[in-house]
Amino acid sequence: MKSVNNDVIIKGNKYGIIVVLNPDISFNELKEQVAEKFRESSKFFEDAKMALSFEGRDLNNEEEKEILDIIENNTDMKIVCIIDNDPKKEELFKKSLEEKLMELENNTGQFYKGILRSGASLEFESSVVIIGDVNNGARVVSKGNIIVLGALKGNAFAGACGNTNAFVVALDMQPTQIRIADTIARSPDKPVKNDVKEPKIAFLEDGNIYIEPLNKDVLNDIRL
Amino acid sequence: MGEVIVVTSGKGGVGKTTTTANVGTGLAMLDKKVVLIDTDIGLRNLDVVMGLENRIVYNLVDVIEGNCRIRNALIKDKRYPNLYLLPSAQTRDKNAVKPEQMKKLADELKEEFDYILMDCPAGIEQGFHNAIAGADRALVITTPEVSAVRDADRIIGLLEANEIDETYLIVNRLRMDMVKRGDMMSSEDVTEILAVDLIGVVPDDENIVISTNQGEPLVGSDSQAGTAYMNIARRLLGEEVPFLDLNAKSSFFSRLFGKNKKI
Questions:
Q1: Which domain range does residue A24 map to?
Q2: Antiparallel, parallel or unpaired: β B75-76 and B83-86
Q3: Angle between helices B187-194 and B146-161 (to 10 degrees)
Q4: Residue B158 main-chain phi, psi, to 5 deg
Q5: Alpha-carbon gap: A133 to the closest alpha carbon of chain B (Å)
């Protein structure tokens, strides 16, 4: 027990050090061990700037802070950041990052001017406003929303990365197919009688794609 | 310095060859020096429509491969001395010619002729690329059918991609009676979809079938289609010609009093 103490192990990786903590000893004991271990290796680390992560034992914020204080008091090291290895937290970060990115895809956009003719296929990382027609046989894909200032007769695929809030707007809505996230809707086999040519919006709700005239109520429901 | 005009459509059977023959002949009747080139290698038929099949000795591929000079392969028209045909080869295929070679040929012909009309094959493969290689302008032919309009749309996109910006639309085989009943797209409907300038509307006319079979283009004749083709030729020369009133023919009285001559 005295000769090899494995309650606290310091490992290095490319970006910094990993401190492996024994989960079975009391926190006070652990603190002592940490102090000792880092005092021993303070010469080795000198005043290095490091990223640090903990493994082996779940620490709450307070405990984490205490241990960091101990490390800083016993060495000249500067801890630049703490890297979390907690898979739950990682998942949370990933999700919020993706949400933020998705929001960017929705909120940022670009313009395209010209007629998309049969055979043309355009893909956009962000939302897109097309000034011109999208003819039959043409295809627009966007990770965000698609707005066509003209006739949409071809295929439109909004929210290509799975954003179910994405929508498609066209001044003349006669698409062959509309796809939002993972849902596909196709045009009716028989042309709609008495269909008024007016601006319409296609959106996803409860797993179905709906096309409705563009009015204030619908616009209020849009979530970016 | 002449001008190269490609006549194309994407879809087959909409009237590229008939249009080439008639518009070309029309330009020749208007005293222009014209050569028609059949670029449909392997499926030659512009010569048949022009009634010049029996005069073919050399063809386009012979010229490209250097087996003869251009002037040996050019066939002078039966009726108009300033109209020539460069026929296609029947025993070869589209791969016998490359776009660069066609462009070179077109550039050479430009020196001598006012107008070079390229009759493009159907499709968007090698033959199409050969035909458009040297083109300054394009005539896109479509009939008022969704399939033909769809293909025309694709063709216009490809022409734009190949930097041929001056594109004109011809709506062929329009049947006014069907348009009135709402069973056929009107030329306005087609123009709205394709969003290019309309240069002519040719009514469906059985005289075309007769003229094609006889090998004598009917451009300039009294028939509606003949007048329509002549109008296209005039518009190509920059003349402002009003569009045909296609309803006129149905009126017995106007026919009786010959009031339609203004078309």
A1: 8-88
A2: antiparallel
A3: 40
A4: -70, -35
A5: 9
Structural domains of chain B, with CATH: 3-262 (3.40.50.300)
Interface of B with A in 8-47 (CB under 8 A): none
A65 & A147 share domain? no
**Same-domain check for residues A111 and A200:** yes
- Using a CB–CB cutoff of 8 Å, tell me whether B123 touches chain A: no
Tell me which chain B residues have a C-beta less than 8 angstroms from the C-beta of A120. Answer: 157
* The token pair that represents B183 in the structure block: 């069973």
Q: Any long-range contacts for A148-156 (C-beta under 8 Å, 24+ apart)?
A: A150/A115, A154/A116, A154/A118, A155/A179, A156/A202
Which tokens hold the place of B176? 């006014």
Chain B residues lying within 8 Å of A117, measured CB to CB? 153-154, 156-157, 160
CA dist., res. A210 & res. A197, Å (int):
17
pTM of the model: 0.73
A13 plus A46 within the same structural domain: yes
Do A82 and A116 share a domain, yes or no? Answer: no
Given an 8 Å threshold on Cβ–Cβ distance, is A118 in contact with B154?
A: yes
A215: which residues sit within 8 A by CB, 6+ positions away? none
Q: How far is B153 from chain A (nearest CA, A)?
A: 6
Q: What is the ipTM of this complex?
A: 0.74
- pLDDT tens for each residue of A34-58: 888 888 888 887 777 778 888 888 8
For chain B, what is the radius of gyration of the CA atoms? 18
Whether residues A142 and A212 share a domain: the answer is yes
The continuous run of DSSP H or E covering A122 comes out as strand A121-124
Residue A188, in any domain of the structure: yes
Residues 6+ apart with CB under 8 A from B43: B88, B90, B121
Q: Are A111 and A213 contained in the same domain?
A: yes
pLDDT tens, residue by residue, A101-152 = 777 766 788 999 999 999 999 999 899 999 999 999 999 999 999 999 999 9
A133 to chain B, any CB pair closer than 8 A? The answer is yes
